[in-house]
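Annex B. Sample input.
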Amino acid sequence: MDKEHILKNTLSYHDEFMDSLKNSEEAFGYLQVALEEYQVDGDAEALLVALRNVALAQGGISKLAKKTHLNRQNLYNILSKKGNPRLDTFGTILKGLGFKLAIGH
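Annex B, continued. Sample output.
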């Protein structure tokens, strides 16, 4: 078998991962881990990447913008690695993805 044949007939990990995030339970687990890591290291980058990945998997940024009534370009900026969403915006994004803010111990 040649490399082209293998690549053509193999899903990339990223494609398979993004497909798994269409499932709300998978997306929930992924976001939960990202939030837990943020609580440990204080680095919001992984959390924002996780939010962006879930948004992309569940219909894209444009669809999320319509659900949340947030500007599409602002959402791209907020969900970038250097984004810094306000708490109310963070909550709105989570709600648009079908989740809610909660406190646990």
